[in-house]
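Hi R.,

Here's the chain you asked about this morning:
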Amino acid sequence: MNSRGRTGTVKAALKRTAIDLLYPRRCMICHGPAPWGEYICPECEPELPVIESRRCRKCGKPVEDFEALCPDCEKNPHQYDRGIGIYRYDSVMREAVSYLKYKGRREYGEAMGIYAAESARSELMTWNPEIIVPIPIHPARLRERGYNQAEVIARAVSEESGIRMAPDALQRKDTTSAMKNLSVRERYSNLSKVLVAGPGLSGIRSALIVDDIYTTGATVDAGARVLRDAGISRIYFLSVCIGGGFMVSY
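And the predicted structure, written out as C-alpha cells:
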C-alpha cells in the first residue's frame, strides 16, 4: 500500500478508537456487544460467507471452475470495467444488511466497508481509482433513514484505503418508482433517468463505485454510464455482497 493508504489507515484507526470509547459497537452477525476494538465477535467471524471460489472476470460473481464469465456478463455489455463483491448474499449477510438499512445499525456499514477494503486490497491497488463514489439512495429513504448506507460503507472504504471520497459525484435528481419487482431492463431505465453527475469531476479519469449489494448490475451500470458521460474512462465497483443468481439480458 502507498503512503496515502497507510496515512488513511492510521487516521481511520484513531477515529474508530475514539468512537469506540463513546459508542461501543455491536457485532453485525450476532448483534451482541462486540469486543473492544473489534467489529465482529471472533466466534462469529467464521460465519462470514467470504467468496473463495473462482470468480467471473467481469463482475466477480462466483462461477464454475470452467467458466471465465458468468451468464450475465456473457449476455450483457456492462458499463463498468471490472468489479468485485466480498460476500455471498446469504441469510447471514441479508440480516446484517437489513439491520444496517432498517434498524439504524449504522456501525454495521462501517464494519462492512472496512472488511470490504481489506479483502479487496489487491484489486484497489491494481485499479488505483482516483475517487470513491457511493450509489445515492431514494430521497425519501434518505430522509427516513437519516443516512445513505452506501455512503457509510464508501466512507469506511475511503478511510481504510486512503482513496478520496466523492459523496456527491452521483446524485439523484428525482424519485423513482419502487424497483423491487421491476425487470433488469426496467430497473436500468428507471435509474438512468434520475441519476446525474455531480460537480467536481473535471479531470477525473478513474472511479470506484461502492454499494451494499450487487445483484443484476443494473444500479452499478446506470451509475457507471453517468460517470462515463462525465468523462471518466475507467470505472470499477466494490460491493459488500453479491448475489449468486443470474438474470435475463437487458
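DSSP finds nine helices and seven strands in the chain.

Let me know if you need anything else.
M.
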